[in-house]
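Review form for a predicted model. The reviewer records the input and the model, then writes brief findings.
Reviewer: anonymous (R2)
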Amino acid sequence: MLFLALLPSLVLAETAEQQQARVDRLEHAVLAPCCYTEPVAIHQSESAVKMRVKIAKWVAVGKTDQEILNTYVGLYGAKVLVDPRTAPRWWMQWVPWLVLAFGVAGGFWLLQTWRTRPSGGSTPIGEQFVELPDFDDE
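Model under review:
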């Protein structure tokens, strides 16, 4: 009889691997509140370490993922969540380098055209120069 009473709780209980998978998923879903640039799983600040400990403790206690995320949103605002829709696309990594390459190529082209083009102040070949008197001899 006792076995039948405990059977639902045994079926619903998470294994250690499942709990660790949840902890990892939650740590990658929350940004470190000190700078909001890296997930808690990667960041090495004191606040990120404390958040990792709290997340593991809350998962062990049985809080749901949504409860944990809502707790951090309540503390730090929605900017603490990693939103996959805001992740940079593949081309975002290449745009600055392409702009730099085109800028350097354009600069070299511009310098080359300035060197080869004759300046407007030069005298054509064959013209005579008018000699002006030297003012220092007076």
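Findings: The mean pLDDT is 81.
Further findings: The helical segments are 2-12, 16-29, 46-61, 65-76, 95-116.
Recommendation: see findings above.
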